[in-house]
Amino acid sequence: MLLEARIEEAGYGGKQVLREVDLSLAEGERLLIVGSSGSGKTTLLLSVSGVLDNLLEGYTRGKISLAGLNPLEPEGFRRVPSKAGFVLQDPDKQLAMPTPLDEVMFTLENLGWSEEEARERALEVLAEMGLKGLELVPVENLSGGQKRRLTLAASLAHNPVILFLDEPTASIDPWGLAELRSYLRRVSSERGVAIIEHKARYFLDMVDRVVALREGRIAGSWSPSSPGLVEELEGAGADAGSYTVREPRVSVGEVVAEARGVGAGYGGRVVVEVGEVTVRRGEVVALVGPNGSGKTTLLKTLGGLLKPVEGEVRLRGRAFYMPQHPDYVFLFPTVGREVAEVKTATGVDLTLLPGFGWVRGLMDRSPYRLSHGQRRWLAFGIAIAYRADLYLLDEPTTGMDVGLYRTFGSLLEDLASRSGVLVSTHDVRVVAEYVDRVYMVSSGRVWEVDKGYAVRLLEEAWR
Amino acid sequence: MLSGYSRRLGGSVAPVSVSALLLYSLWVTVLAVATSDPWKLGFLALVTGLPGLVLGYRRYGVLVPLLGLSLLGTFLNMLLLYNVGDPVFSIGPLVVREEAWRRTVSLDLRILSLAGAGLLFASTVNPRDAVRSLEVELGMPRGFAFALAFALRLLPLVYRDLQEVMAVRRMRGYRRVPITPGDYRSLFMPLLSVTVERGIWVGVAAELRGFSLRPRRRVRPRFRRGDLVLLVLAVLQGLVVAGLAGP
User: Residue B134, Cβ neighbours under 10 Å: how many?
Assistant: First the structure.
């Protein structure tokens, strides 16, 4: 066995997160670990890798054997990287070097390779991962899919016997996901692979076993071909595949934003040419397209945050842009100050909004110390309070589990009942279930596509 | 060019060593902190600050708005706290007096010298080369060398964060250009929060990629031709600040 973990208990400080978790992974096996936000998926990865005990202020009680090493002991933990590769959730929180070549060489030099050997191997593995020609390109200029492949290259360059991936689908588009799946198939035949993911549907066809975590315990273990698996997994908070394509809203109001013949971009350079984009009050409109195609640039241009390079945007009323990362939305040191300032600016008491009662108990807390779900939720609350005529949401469902996604959906319905909403998304569920019209952004152009076509496109792209 | 960035896939040797550049930047930093004489600070800003800003602009032009904010913040603070003495000039009804102006000039020149020294290092050194050189040539603890090297990678990310925060500030009806200490705090708090979180996870990722297994090697620093130029400039600035030469 490459991994044998018998965790009696694990957590941070005095807070227990995992309890009685037994997990194993054999050579050549692909394991999918699913669960809702807060179920303990990432804590499990941190525990079995030894990070929880050796780097964070956490603890693990139990026994773990990872490729014959005990990662709970400092010496075993130090040697874990020579046996295992890790791909963490967000590439921007993993990539430490300025170019792909440097990034891969960094791993190899850490593990004792000479500079010449490391360069040679790095070039080889970058080519294997489809990054040939991009070796010296600044990391910032890579697309989401390319960054993800780079994290994979940097984790695999030294040929580890076991590979862990933590939410590898976060922040990549369906096309990037297709590439990731293809590379994973290629590299996983000779090693053990554990994928931690709440979007189970993207990997069910390529794993040997699925384990679900619920409230820090193993809720079940199945073969991917088990009957009723989708229902079981959705019961555990994972997105296992089902969604419905809803008919567009029939009744919509006046146009709140309109761009015709506009060139959206930065510093005089047009990134996206807009023939025509309109958003009406009472509808949810999606922008779909690959990472780096200019969706965020277009959102900001429509919201008046970027001046169009060419043409004119007509915005009727007030716009509110919601960035992907909720922390950008907070401007004050405590939740209480945020609530007070929002009330002063808008007259809305956040604590009285439906679904925001929990805020009252955290008024002295820094907003940056809330859980990820709470931060995202508070940021939406602030956006709602501003009662904008147009909401511009940038990848709002990234990292959301099914439960949070459903709550977000009801909030989106509420926003659309009185405002226009333009949402940039890769999430096929959002397009199918909440969106009325879809614009495709690609190759520097934007055009309207049929909603059914967009759903099929997003669905087929990743397979 | 000085930089490791200019190297090709096969690698090449830069004319200035990373260690010499770091020591030079640290030396100018010490000098800029040690003196408050505007003329001496002006000399540091001229010799190191401006070249650093020019060299750094291409890669870190993104820092210019931040530098601009710092200079503006300095001026406003000095106006608030030290606006006494003879009038120097006026902006509409606002009279700027000698003490506020002198302190603004000194502090701004110091900021320019520090930023220039930092950018000189940041823009000409590749982070991976920096980790290796600082550790191998100067014997610096690898954790410190990595933190310094990663800071170079963070700059473009921080600029991206800054743009997002500025966008939200505008959506929420706050000033785009911060003026009061509260404005500055509300601008920097989210930046700090996101950066700290990113730093923690990059540290974890580096450990999971064997950073603590990194072999300890020591080699004698190799003296390169460009290092001599840095040495001359360092001595010259030291003499000026010590009052043994120049203004």
Answer: 22
Contacts with A119 from chain B: Cβ below 8 Å: 9-11
**Residue ranges of domains in chain A, CATH in brackets:** 3-235 (3.40.50.300), 255-461 (3.40.50.300)
How far apart are the CA of A101 and the nearest CA of chain B, in angstroms? 8
Beta strand pairing call for A217-222 and A445-449: unpaired
In-domain check, residue B7: no
ipTM: 0.85
Give the pLDDT confidence of A322-349 residue by residue, as tens digits. Answer: 988 888 899 888 999 999 999 999 999 9
Flag whether B37 is in a domain.
Answer: yes
Structural domain containing residue B181: 18-242
For residue B3, being part of any structural domain is answered with no
Q: Report chain B (247 residues): mean pLDDT per 10 consecutive residues.
A: 42 69 90 91 92 81 74 86 90 89 91 89 76 76 79 80 87 82 83 88 93 78 79 92 74
Indicate the residue of A54, A110, A319 with minimum beta-carbon distance to B210.
Answer: A110
- What total of structural domains would you count in chain B? 1
Chain B residues inside the 8 Å CB shell of A106: 128, 131, 206, 209
Query: What are φ and ψ of residue A428, in 5° steps?
Result: -60, -30
First to last CA, chain A: 30
Q: How many CA atoms lie within 13 A of A345 on its CB side?
A: 20
